[in-house]
Amino acid sequence: MSNQTQTAQNSADHQELPPAEKEFLANYNPADYERPSVTVDIVIFTVRDNDLKVLLVKRRFAPFQGYWALPGGFVKMNESLEASAMRELKDETGVENVYIEQLYTFGDPQRDPRTRVITVTYLALVEGQQIKTLQAGSDASEAGWFSVYQLPELAFDHHYILDYAHKRLRAKLEYTNVAFQLVPEKFTLTELQRIYEIIWNQKLDKRNFRKRLSIRERSAYPEANPHQMLEELEETRPGGNFGPTKLYRFIDRVERIVRGIGV
Amino acid sequence: MSNQTQTAQNSADHQELPPAEKEFLANYNPADYERPSVTVDIVIFTVRDNDLKVLLVKRRFAPFQGYWALPGGFVKMNESLEASAMRELKDETGVENVYIEQLYTFGDPQRDPRTRVITVTYLALVEGQQIKTLQAGSDASEAGWFSVYQLPELAFDHHYILDYAHKRLRAKLEYTNVAFQLVPEKFTLTELQRIYEIIWNQKLDKRNFRKRLSIRERSAYPEANPHQMLEELEETRPGGNFGPTKLYRFIDRVERIVRGIGV
DNA sequence: ATAATTTAGTGTGACCAAAACACTTGTAAT
DNA sequence: ATTACAAGTGTTTTGGTCACACTAAATTAT
User: Fold this and answer.
1) Interface contact A65, partner B, CB < 8 A
2) How far is residue A35's CA from residue A29's CA, in Å, rounded to a whole number?
3) Could you tell me whether strands A37-48 and B140-147 are parallel, antiparallel, or unpaired per DSSP bridges?
4) pLDDT for A188-239, tens place per residue?
5) Rounded distance, CA B213 to CA B104, Å?
6) Pairing between strand B186-187 and A230-237?
7) What residues are paired with B187 via a beta bridge?
8) Tell me, in Å, how far CA of B27 is from C1' of D26?
9) pTM metric for this prediction
10) Nearest to B134, CA basis, from B146, B142, B122
């Protein structure tokens, strides 16, 4: 078993295939094998009304017609998984341009009564005020935000998937900055703290929270906690019946939206 | 958008479907939709000869015939993804009964020149001495362990997948006990330390390493670091040209093999 | 037999992060 | 003026991480 190196051919350039492969491709018929269906399902969270909410759609068709379910649908042949997830989210709910990362792939043979369906799930986050109105798409008769603590009966194994996503979100708050995805562009530190408190479902100490933020800024994980992530703005927001509060901005918010590394 | 609760029907019992769903199922034809192929690919690591090795197979057929690739193959219709991964690993290499956890799902439309292939990848770990001989299966003409630092050209996007798995393994050593999967049943603390050093590719301080182990034992993450995970055995191993060394055992090793939580 | 070699095994101090904890200040409403 | 409310701010204790050096046991070479 040697560590021999192959003759040079980049695994990425499919343009120049050797003759044997060309012949194989010519004879290859994708219909020769029975294949499972592949869907994407999206667990999209927001924080709103002091509560962690998830977006669900009411199924217009069988199976589980009339049940609430995670938005999702079949992956198209020429579309990446992530693009699929974003398209389904937009089609079924009108929500677009959000942070999204892959969650897990569920493939129990019995999870869909129709046929074998493997679903690649995504975790998405969106700031609460950004979504004005939800629009139900062709596959969904209704769409709505539900408290993760008061859920209706869900279709398929979606309850399990949602649980899994909730756990992952909780865990990711500990070592990443995903929480910034749940806050408007300009925010107060108290608002940011509320995000953590709601997702972890516990009160946090104000001073410790702020100290941790400043420590995280100069932390050793530039990927998860980029330097200088918080910018203190000149601007303040007038308090209610108390003093004005400082506003902050998240530097490089746009980049962060792109894609979670997920290591 | 209310939080209405549905009439009782457990999403798990597909036995009693309402008439509308029954009718839908009767008319449902899985061939109506074009579907991608789904494969599993396994990145199985071992530590051996002071090096982190990965198991590769040489492809017997096109595409990428003759190239080294991760073991894997098509998911069968009635088999879970995890079972698929274990079956392919056994079929192509003879390796079985190992720790395995899902890694990521890669689904770029162009990643396979034949057709759309979505691959669910798994990270597996096995102790170096446990595998006596590798046996190449029907799809692989050869199977062998390669240093992750000296890899041949790989088929498809397998180089990328392998990189991703390596990163994940490195990260998981920090907060879980997966390293125990890479060590024989009875081991010395120095052997365990070598595992960390090899995967992180850096020397560790002996005293700090041992202290960290004892701290981890009473740590606050029972899932990742179960209490009392290390048992000091009476038995010792005679040293080379030095004194005898204490042997340890990993308590509940069997349970741990089952499945990574992966949150 | 003596010396040299090799690895096992062990403790302390400095630093840093996390957690617990309380008061002052500015504004609006009364 | 008094009250109500949330913003903003610092210290102490505790525990983990890291850097660091010597002794003991056995084998090998002389």
Assistant:
1) yes
2) 13
3) unpaired
4) 999 999 999 999 999 999 999 999 998 876 654 444 444 457 888 999 998 8
5) 29
6) unpaired
7) B248
8) 79
9) 0.86
10) B142
